[in-house]
């Protein structure tokens, strides 16, 4: 019966099913909200139950909670230009929202959701924490050996970037289509 349908030109074979728009937007919104809320709740817990500079062993020597406030980026880079990070995070958040209309893949929805949630988590700190609006210091508290101290928002961003790298290496575009070698060659010729 299926062969008859495929052979009948009046009834073309439907394309492979793509995830529905509502599912993609739900995944995007769900992971954005999850990353943002978890980040803000853990920072609230840290600021209300720990003193800045306090270090609590969780799984020594592998994991400690170590409460610091970071005015810079990763590894405290750019401590004197905190306002620049606020602008960058706001721009990244807006750029992500513009890309949402192109989503055609659940994995891209997950990645962009985590990226937006993480960016907004740290942007919230930059905007509303001391010392001033737009120059706030980010609350960091997760310490691993020989590594920077980070938070849930940072973890969400790094996870998102890892997923995006895997999707890109596998040739999966934002719209869910697969880039073939032929498609790559044609786009490289232009």
Automatic annotation (TrEMBL):
UniProt GO molecular function: aspartic-type endopeptidase activity
Membrane topology reported for the UniProt record: Multi-pass membrane protein
Subcellular location: Cell membrane
Keywords: Aspartyl protease, Cell membrane, Hydrolase, Membrane, Protease, Transmembrane, Transmembrane helix
Pfam families named among the record's database cross-references: Peptidase_A8
EC number: 3.4.23.36
The protein's enzyme class: hydrolase
Regions crossing the membrane: 21-38, 81-98, 105-124, 144-169
Entry keyword Protease: yes
Catalytic activity: Release of signal peptides from bacterial membrane prolipoproteins. Hydrolyzes -Xaa-Yaa-Zaa-|-(S,diacylglyceryl)Cys-, in which Xaa is hydrophobic (preferably Leu), and Yaa (Ala or Ser) and Zaa (Gly or Ala) have small, neutral side chains
Active-site residues annotated for this sequence: 140, 154
Pathway(s) where this gene product acts: Protein modification; lipoprotein biosynthesis (signal peptide cleavage)
Entry similarity comment: Belongs to the peptidase A8 family.
HAMAP family: LspA (MF_00161)
Function: This protein specifically catalyzes the removal of signal peptides from prolipoproteins.
Name of the protein described by the UniProt record: Lipoprotein signal peptidase
